[in-house]
Amino acid sequence: MVHCSCVWFRKYGNFIDNLRIFTRGGTGGMGYPRLGGEGGKGGDVWVVAHKRMTLKQLKDKYPQKRFVAGEGANSRVSALKGSKGKDCEIPVPVGISVTDENGKVIGELNKEQDRILVAEGGLGGKLLTNFLPLKGQKRVIRLDLKLIADIGLVGFPNAGKSSLLSQISHAKPAIADYAFTTLKPELGKIMYNDFKQELELYKEELQRKPALLAVNKMDLPGAQDKFHILMHQLQNPKEFLHLFEKNMIPKRTMEFQHIIPISATTGEGIDELKNYIRKSLDEHANQEDDVYHKKQLLNLQISNTVSYSKPPPKSPVTSPR
């Protein structure tokens, strides 16, 4: 049984799951010794999570992989307190782990607009620094994408999950004729002509995910007859629930978009299964796009409503003498 997750990587081409970049906070502004003026602090460098961003997009847009914040403004007679330098934001996808050169974890960005300070700006010139500015923090950081899957394989022990994974992807899991051969999660990638890939994700709300059912071992004797019986049971589940113990009956029965007979041994039905997987992913990607665009349109409408509904400024009222 194959479940689609709610995350897709839509950027076609070579997939990138880590990136090493240089960051530097801005230098502070000069102080003004004669009047005791303080220079502005240098800008900071932040890593900020965006849903519609990939590491490949980041690399393509910034091939130098160098991010430097703005310098603080100098103190001057007309502005003794210099303004802060402009911050620099590095847009990254959701699900990024940020580490320094030594592998120490600086932080993680797990949702939209999460942000982490990675390089702080230098202090502006002041009495403490003899009115001389300090340089910003230099830091080489590594961005690692925590891989999240589009598809998960679910099935009974010895049902052929590992055999199927090896057939449809580049994974090479251990395969043997006894239960629980696979003792740890196995990760595979399906490569399509446009380079869209499949990864792996498990969540508690698995039952509510769109699902495909792959019926394996169709190469065994009597498999066709058993498949027809299974199809009848799936189409009329209430007629067969009494065969299970009460604590084994799910509150919500699974509904499958497609049911595909396959054989991970002979390869029967594998291409058809891969096509249905891709079709299902694309359908739900389009649904997500529709939801996103509707949300953006709603935000725009709300923004316009607010801007046009502001009351006009009150004019001063004078009383006749």
Overview of the structural elements:
The chain is an alpha/beta fold. It starts with a strand and ends in a 13-residue tail after the last helix. It is built from 4 helices and 12 strands. The strands form 3 sheets. The protein has a 5-stranded mixed sheet, with no helix packed on it. A 4-stranded mixed sheet has the order 10-1-11-12, covered by helices on one side.
Brief write-up:
By secondary structure, the chain is α/β, with parallel strands linked by helices. The protein has helices spanning 55-61, 161-168, 223-235, 270-308, and strands at 2-4, 18-24, 45-50, 66-68, 88-93, 96-100, 105-109, 115-119, 138-145, 151-153, 211-215, 256-261. Helix content is 21%, strand content 19%.
Task: Itemize the secondary structure elements and their pairings.
Elements: E1 2-4, E2 18-24, E3 45-50, H1 55-61, E4 66-68, E5 88-93, E6 96-100, E7 105-109, E8 115-119, E9 138-145, E10 151-153, H2 161-168, E11 211-215, H3 223-235, E12 256-261, H4 270-308
Parallel strand pairs: 2-4, 3-5, 11-12
Antiparallel strand pairs: 1-10, 1-11, 2-9, 3-8, 6-7, 6-9
